[in-house]
Recover the amino acids of this structure.
DNA sequence: GAACTTGTTGGCGGAGTGTCAACAACAAGA
DNA sequence: TCTTGTTGTTGACACTCCGCCAACAAGTTC
């Protein structure tokens, strides 16, 4: 009556296993810099052979990319905040919302979006840039500026730049503790308002001057 | 009459050798991400044995840090731009100056200050943060705000955040080409003016309100 | 030319990663 | 229950990269 010998390891569905590994990896990458996290560490954390990581995710960097993507896929802004009120009100509400979502992700967010040093991997950069662009488009749309002038690409670039301010401010707040939440809110709101009020109109004017042909500048009181 | 056999390698003064290696390393780190540059590559580029890199710089990361430091040590702003005129004039001149210096460094600057992905090495981050702080102090001083209120630390943090906007904008300009130099100039100027005009006064007021219990702010103007 | 100083080399050992054939857990059929 | 098939999983091998260090040689001095 020998009971069937206990299995030496549990067999999971590919999706489950993938998810489990992804979680462990996300945790470790949030704690330590990329180079300081070995695939052996992740495998050990997940209780799995190292080779399995490659089987599911390919290269180590690919696994990292999955983690980054997952982190940057946040719920849409427009679903959470009403698009009404003055420009200032909308800006402040969206900043508020963003600070909230960041606060819940904390360290991992900072680590992933980190303005690190170690020369960026172009692929990683592409992923982040992509996410930034989506986020920028959403912001423009939310502010009601999506199709204000013809030079939409420039606007998106501007907003992506603004994203740099956002990330740096978040770092000062979350990691450094040198800024309070209110400080961050104030800084981000005023800067965004300034950009929309002062920079975009001037841009529109400049574009109109350069191009001779009038962009579809809808007169906005 | 055998002429003295040609030396198999040239013997240099430590400083010269160090400098030479540093230049090669800077070039390579500017072209490829950190992880993609092997010490073997650098050694080959410099025409030396790999071990020599460790002899002069210790770890590979230490060499990288040296490169970063060198890149971030730029000539002082105050030496190049007169500190006169209105706030707007001063801001615009300093932005102008900064864009000029960045334009000369180009790719390497972007790579080094890159808001990359690969989780940042804390040491690298510290170096960059240090340079950012110096740069922030200089900016405050240049704008004549160095000792305006007691909450100097918060101002510096704000300016460091602004540095995030600067870096992101530079990237859009240099690497992406999505913004023109004029766009960058406009965006950075307006944002900085907005911060100084709108955020700092409010900060001062807020600090004054809070300071019923005075954390350790101490000297107020 | 001999002896000394020290800039430089080349190879050793360790750590990390990608690959792959073999293995074992589980399901299904007899 | 035994057999067979599928496939999730393992473990080891080969390779690359890095830090270390003893031996070597370029240049200097007497």
């Amino acid at each position: 009556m020998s009971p069937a010998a206990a299995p030496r390891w549990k067999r999971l569905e590919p999706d489950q296993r993938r998810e489990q590994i992804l979680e462990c990896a996300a945790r470790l990458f949030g704690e330590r810099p990329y180079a300081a996290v070995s695939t052996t560490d992740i495998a050990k954390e997940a209780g799995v052979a190292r080779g399995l990581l490659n089987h599911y995710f390919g290269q180590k960097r690919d696994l990292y990319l999955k983690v980054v993507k997952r982190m940057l896929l946040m719920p849409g802004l427009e679903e959470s905040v009403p698009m009404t009120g003055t420009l200032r009100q909308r800006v402040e509400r969206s900043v508020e919302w963003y600070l909230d979502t960041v606060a819940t992700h904390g360290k991992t967010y900072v680590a992933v979006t980190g303005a690190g040093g170690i020369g960026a991997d172009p692929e990683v950069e592409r992923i982040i840039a992509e996410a930034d662009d989506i986020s920028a488009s959403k912001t423009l749309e939310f502010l009601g500026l999506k199709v204000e002038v013809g030079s939409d690409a420039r606007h998106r670039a501007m907003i992506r730049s603004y994203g740099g301010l956002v990330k740096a401010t978040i770092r000062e707040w979350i990691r450094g503790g040198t800024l309070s939440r209110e400080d961050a809110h104030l800084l981000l709101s005023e800067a965004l308002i300034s950009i929309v009020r002062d920079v975009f109109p001037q841009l529109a004017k400049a574009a109109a001057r350069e191009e001779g042909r009038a962009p579809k500048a809808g007169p906005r009181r």
Notes: Residues 74-211 of chain A form one domain. Residues 115-119, 213-221 of chain A have pLDDT under 50 and may be disordered. Chain A touches chain B through 59 residues (CB under 8 Å).
